[in-house]
Amino acid sequence: MTIKTAIAALQGETIPQQIALPTSISYSPFEEGVEVFPELPGSFFAGNNFEACDIGFTADEIAAQSGENN
Length: 70
Fold this sequence. Notes:
By secondary structure, the protein is α+β, with helices and mostly antiparallel strands.
């Protein structure tokens, strides 16, 4: 959301003074396989989607990023 807002500001768009993003809160004890996944490799990427903000990235889109194309 921060990057999208910065780009909009650079393009001269009006920027809202407050932005609320949806969050999910989970408290321990965390359940393995539900909130924590210790067997996943460090290279694992999960997709993110915030429909209310019109922002979404698939895991493939995230994994395809590099220092040259981000």
